[in-house]
Amino acid sequence: MTPCPDEATILAFGRGEGEPSVRRSVAAGAAIVCFSGDKLLGGPQAGVLVGQRESIGACRRHPLARAVRIDKLSLAALEATLALYRDPQHARAALPVLAMLTADPHVLAARAERLAAATGGTVVAAVAKVGGGALPLLELPGPAVAIAPGPIGADALAGALRAGDPPLIGRIQDGTLLLDPRTLTDAEAELAAAAVRAARG
Fold first, then answer.
1. H, E, C per residue of 2-62
2. Could you give the CA distance from residue 25 to residue 36 in angstroms, rounded to a whole number?
3. Domain-ending residue, one of 95, 126, 161
4. Taking a C-beta distance cutoff of 8 angstroms, is the pair 165, 194 a contact?
5. Distance between CA atoms of 46 and 48, rounded to whole angstroms?
6. The domain containing residue 155 runs over which residues?
7. Which of 7, 84, 88, 153 could bridge to 21 as Cys pair (CB 3.0-4.6 Å)?
């Protein structure tokens, strides 16, 4: 199996403010360090144990190990995810969550401008929150597109977008629906604009 990547290549993943990295915890003498394959690496849902050989062996021999072991498809996906980190630039592009966390501000600004022009929205400064998982308190400043809801109101517009095909999820702030270009690719931004027009129309 592909070895666990160095934390330096995990870029934005692996530790928030003041949170030790996996490698540092192991180096400090922790017998076992547990982390999430999806939250730390952006891969499949999985629990990962690293640490001292004897301690990992004891975990492997425990009666519960069979009940919580990863299935073969998830294991293959985890291995493929770890392999991506051998080339950090490629990992940034290939892993959606990593691409969102490390998005270039100029790219986000340009995408926001295109989305605003296509929806009649306005580009505003905003702060996105990563939320739960490995980075619960991390805030990411950047542009957002404020969509004036018109007579139906922000809640109804947000509901119509969620019910669309494909669904589009924004957040409501001060009575205005915000769409975050960080969560969209350029192609998806075009689909998002079409969804907004359809929901309003």
1. CCCCCHHHHCCCCCCCCCCCHHHHHHCCCCEEEEEHHHHHCCCCCEEEEECHHHHHHHHHC
2. 15
3. 95
4. no
5. 6
6. 103-200
7. 7
